[in-house]
């Protein structure tokens, strides 16, 4: 960055006062007028344009904004609101939204399904516009070639349903929550209960379409190998607007088996031994078997008024019940699995079962995007590379009971996850990781005091877990977004600030992502609190896309309006 000391302080003060005096803070009304005119001119059509731009004065603004807020922490009266919500119907609408937001100097946030745990797809402390992709939901399934083209605003439930419509022996290895949006899930390295057999969702992406910072629509060939690599696990919102992904379907057997088995510490059920054995088995067993482990502090049914720990295995086996019962009897005797614990079904019914639907629910329930009520929630993540000892587990149980509510979800790795190299995609957490931890706490009532209490619980448990998890870096999963591990103000130290969280999410892949970002979006238009920063020292030869680069000494002055009309002047490279 150009050194500000080169400018006499009097000159800087004069520039600041002159600009502040002559430029009014943008109002919602002025932004709406400028944006709508620009978008109309860009698309060369009046059709639909005014219908897809929602200003704060529009009677539908709140309902459109809130429809895809999945964390109630960010749906309060004090939560910063966008100046506009744009809901594109066609590709030119997306291109125009990028061009016009850039032209008027307003930050653009991109939302596909709204499940971002920290709300950064629809919240900002700067004036911003939401580009809400929920109407981009077309899914075209080609069973003969075993592929599907899926738009970014489709949900995982819709993807599974459309595949099932065409084939009962194909599926896709993505997440278990059916209302999650495809755009964020895939671009962040999404996973599901077939990851030990088939790896991540991004391991099966064979093409994509993206709108870049220049408003161009690029496919894999047009964007080049580097950018195509980056948007398969590096977070698409750092690089452009994902329009669609082309995915390769995977085979699923005609019969799969699910089961749920719970143990409790206070019932003499050897829950500690149960978890010890789970660590030895779950990451190493037959790769057709995925056994998620839930650990939760619950009220004791033995000692009234006390809490205990419940350990629950929730499993999918890509095969029949007899086979998995025999396998578990040999490898995991403390599970005590019997055929009575198991339910055989087809794959689409297992999707419903994992989404906690009852056993009479029809597959078309997967098309329902509505969430009855969004919880208040906080999530964090870790990776475990060495089994936790018995003494370690007993200390963890004590800490969980002491804190009271925060639980764990352990997701086993191994299988296909150990076969894919750590740099094949930006997602680096492959061989050497036994399981991923999700820290999970939900609550139902609003209030600052409640939020502070429960988020503090999660942070304290995260701190306690330090000796048991990965280090140097302490790795984290991008799709379990966690602003506690670092944010970026995009000032003088944006690369260093970005490395704090970027190395946790991407390990050794972070610098390659920075090089690509610097090449394709050198002015850092596509940004959020944890996006990939630019860095002029790393941009040489990073991308085949031929994007222009900024000179190290070039200055880009930009005005942004803060809450209450305060103007700040930023100097960016």
TrEMBL record:
Its cofactor is FAD. InterPro entries: BBE, FAD-bd_PCMH, FAD-bd_PCMH-like_sf, FAD-bd_PCMH_sub1, FAD-bd_PCMH_sub2, Oxid_FAD_bind_N. Keywords: Disulfide bond, FAD, Flavoprotein, Glycoprotein, Signal. Transmembrane segments: none annotated. Residues 1-24 form the signal peptide. Residues 78-252 form the FAD-binding PCMH-type domain. GO terms for biological process: cannabinoid biosynthetic process. GO terms for molecular function: FAD binding; oxidoreductase activity. Belongs to the oxygen-dependent FAD-linked oxidoreductase family. This is FAD-binding PCMH-type domain-containing protein. It comes from Phaseolus vulgaris.
């Amino acid at each position: 960055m150009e050194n500000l000391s080169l400018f006499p302080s009097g000159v800087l003060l004069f520039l600041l006062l002159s600009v502040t005096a002559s430029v009014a803070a943008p109002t919602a009304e002025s932004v709406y007028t400028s944006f709508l005119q620009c978008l109309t001119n860009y698309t060369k059509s009046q059709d639909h344009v005014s219908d897809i731009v929602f200003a704060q004065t529009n009677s539908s603004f709140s309902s459109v904004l809130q429809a895809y807020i999945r964390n109630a922490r960010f749906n309060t009266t004090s939560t910063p609101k966008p100046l506009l919500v744009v809901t594109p119907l066609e590709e030119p609408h997306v291109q125009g939204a990028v061009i016009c937001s850039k032209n008027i100097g307003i930050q653009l946030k991109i939302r596909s399904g709204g499940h971002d745990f920290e709300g950064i797809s629809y919240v900002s402390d700067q004036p911003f516009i939401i580009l809400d992709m929920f109407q981009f939901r077309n899914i075209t399934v080609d069973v003969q070639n075993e592929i599907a083209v899926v738009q970014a605003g489709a949900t995982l439930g819709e993807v599974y349903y459309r595949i099932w419509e065409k084939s009962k022996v194909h599926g896709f290895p993505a997440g278990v929550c059916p209302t999650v949006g495809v755009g964020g899930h895939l671009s962040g390295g999404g996973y599901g209960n077939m990851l030990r057999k088939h790896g991540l969702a991004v391991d099966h992406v064979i093409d994509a379409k993206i709108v870049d910072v220049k408003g161009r629509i690029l496919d894999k060939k047009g964007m080049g190998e580097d950018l195509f690599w980056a948007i398969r696990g590096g977070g698409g919102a750092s690089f452009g607007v994902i329009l669609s992904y082309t995915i390769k379907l995977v085979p699923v057997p005609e019969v799969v088996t699910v089961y749920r088995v719970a143990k409790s510490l206070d019932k003499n059920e050897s829950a500690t031994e149960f978890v010890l054995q789970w660590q030895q088995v779950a990451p190493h067993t037959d790769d057709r078997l995925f056994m998620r482990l839930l650990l939760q502090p619950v009220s004791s049914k033995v000692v009234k008024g006390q809490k205990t720990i419940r350990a629950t295995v929730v499993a999918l086996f890509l095969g029949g019940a007899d086979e998995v019962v025999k396998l578990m009897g040999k490898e995991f005797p403390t599970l005590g699995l019997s055929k009575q614990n198991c339910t055989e079904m087809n794959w689409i019914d297992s999707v419903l079962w994992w989404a906690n639907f009852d056993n009479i629910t029809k597959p078309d329930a997967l098309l329902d995007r509505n969430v009855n009520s969004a919880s208040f929630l906080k999530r964090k993540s870790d990776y475990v590379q060495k089994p936790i000892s018995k003494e370690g587990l007993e200390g963890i149980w004590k800490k969980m009971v002491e804190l009271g509510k925060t639980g764990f979800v352990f997701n086993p790795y191994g299988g296909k996850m150990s076969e894919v190299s750590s740099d094949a995609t930006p997602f680096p957490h492959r061989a050497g990781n036994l399981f991923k931890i999700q820290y999970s706490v939900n609550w139902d009532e609003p209030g600052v005091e409640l939020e502070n209490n429960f988020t503090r619980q999660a942070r304290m448990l995260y701190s306690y877990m330090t000796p048991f998890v990965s280090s140097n870096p302490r790795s984290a999963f991008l799709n379990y977004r966690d602003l506690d591990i670092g944010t970026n103000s995009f000032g003088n130290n944006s690369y260093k600030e970005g490395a704090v969280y970027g190395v946790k999410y991407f390990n050794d892949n972070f610098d390659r992502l920075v090089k690509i970002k610097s090449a394709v979006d050198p002015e850092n238009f596509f940004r959020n609190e944890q996006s990939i920063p630019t860095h002029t020292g790393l941009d040489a030869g990073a991308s085949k896309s031929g994007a222009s680069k900024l000179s190290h000494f070039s200055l880009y002055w930009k005005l942004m309006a803060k809450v209450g009309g305060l103007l700040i002047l930023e100097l960016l490279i």
